[in-house]
Task: structure prediction
Amino acid sequence: MVVLATGCGRIAFEPFTAPTDSTSDGAVDSATVCNDPIADAFDDGVISSIWSVSVEAPVTVVESNGNITITLAETGNLYGNLTIGCRYDMRGREISIEVLDVPDGDPAAEMFLELGIDGDNRVGIDVTSSNLRSYRRIGGNYVDVDVVPYDALAKRFWRLRETAGTMFWETSDNRVDWTVRHSEASPLDVSNVEIGIHAGTFDVATSPGVARFDNFDVR
Result:
């Protein structure tokens, strides 16, 4: 299970391990490197077996009304996590997701899309304190590579993409035309990574609200 320690969640991950999932079934062993495309529109009301789910009560993760809703808790350091059940070779590939709702601006609440080798080596896109952050953490060193105010329409879609050794952090309003938020030589080996979507609070929060995702895609 992905567990967050003290401080900002983007900084304090423990290393990735194969999640234990009591809410879904049939997840692929995370030691397997997968290559098949995945698409999940979250439209059948049941969390797909492609996901391993870990939830720290009273946080809840529910698939309903055509999306995934993670309801956050005011208690600090509690998260809901959905992780693809096998690791992926993301060379020349991309992951993207539609973001419908973000936490309600409390500085301790966040939601993010991420891929990584382990807890100290990963990249992602995050919303915290009404800002959209593109980030990397390599060798345990966390860096925001781009920070802009979050716009729910203009930045509705998030994408992480690797092409010919370059990593791209991107956003879009329509999933067709993408804005590059940052690019650089890939800071990690993406040939065997874990992919996940997460939301929670890394400190005590006041009415943090919900994080709502839709239309997840790996291709």
